[in-house]
Specification:
Elements lengths: L2 H15 L4 H12 L4 H19 L2 H7 L1 H24 L15 H13 L2 H10 L12 H31 L3 H29 L1
Helix pairs in contact: 1-8, 2-8, 2-9, 3-6, 3-7, 3-8, 5-9
Length: 206
C-alpha cells in the first residue's frame, strides 16, 4: 500500500479516536477503579480486531444492508452500554491510597471491553464506511489484506489513546477521590446517554 494512503488514513483514524465516546467512558472508569487497565483496553482492542476481520470477510456490508440484523446488534450493544453505565453511576468505585481491594478477574474486564467495541453498531458501520475508502480493488495487495492493515493501524491508534487516557485518569485523579468519583459517574452517564441515543435512533429509523 502507498505511504500516502496509509498516512491519510492514520490521520483520519487518529482524529476519530480522539473523539470521546463509549470506549473513552469505559477506559476512564476502569482507570479509576482497577489496578491495571491492560485487560480492559486489551478487550476493547480485540473488539476492533474482530470488526476488522468481519469487514475484511465482507460480512459487515451484508449486516449493514439487513435492517433486522442491525436492529438486533444495536439493541444488544445499547443494553450492554446501559448496564455498564448504570453500574458506574450507582457504584463509582475509585482508587484510594492503601486500597487493597481485589480487582475483578481480568477475563471479565476483557470481555466487557470486547462488548464495548465489538457490539457497537456505530463502530461496525464506521468500519464499513471508512476502511474500504482507503483500500484499492485490483491493487497488488489483496483487498482483504489492505483492510486488515488499515484495521490494524486503527487498532494501534486506539491502543495509544486509550492507554494514555486510562493512565492519565488513574494518575491525575488518584489523590482526588471526590473528583474521581464524579468523573466515574460522568463516564457512566455518558454510556447511558449513548445507549439511549442508539435505541432512539434505531426506533426512528426502524
Amino acid at each position: 500500500m502507498a505511504i500516502g494512503i496509509l498516512s491519510a488514513f492514520w490521520l483520519v483514524s487518529f482524529l476519530l479516536v480522539l473523539v470521546p465516546g463509549a470506549d473513552w467512558a469505559y477506559v476512564i472508569a476502569v482507570g479509576l477503579r482497577d489496578r491495571s487497565i491492560v485487560p480492559a483496553v486489551g478487550g476493547v482492542l480485540l473488539g476492533y480486531v474482530l470488526l476488522t476481520a468481519v469487514v475484511a470477510a465482507g460480512v459487515a456490508a451484508l449486516v449493514a444492508r439487513s435492517s433486522a440484523v442491525l436492529t438486533v446488534l444495536t439493541v444488544l450493544g445499547a443494553l450492554y452500554l446501559l448496564r455498564l453505565g448504570i453500574a458506574a453511576v450507582t457504584d463509582p468505585a475509585v482508587p484510594r491510597a492503601g486500597d487493597e481491594r481485589a480487582d475483578e478477574p481480568w477475563t471479565r474486564r476483557a470481555v466487557r471491553g470486547v462488548g464495548i467495541s465489538g457490539l457497537n453498531p456505530k463502530a461496525l458501520l464506521l468500519f464499513v464506511a471508512l476502511l474500504p475508502q482507503f483500500a484499492t480493488r485490483g491493487a497488488t495487495w489483496p483487498f482483504a489484506a489492505q483492510i486488515a492493515v488499515l484495521g490494524g493501524l486503527h487498532t494501534v491508534n486506539c491502543a495509544i489513546v486509550y492507554i494514555t487516557v486510562g493512565l492519565a485518569a488513574r494518575t491525575v485523579l488518584r489523590a482526588r477521590p471526590t473528583v474521581a468519583r464524579a468523573v466515574t459517574r460522568c463516564s457512566g452517564i455518558a454510556m447511558i446517554v449513548i445507549a439511549v441515543l442508539l435505541l432512539a435512533e434505531r426506533i426512528v429509523t426502524g
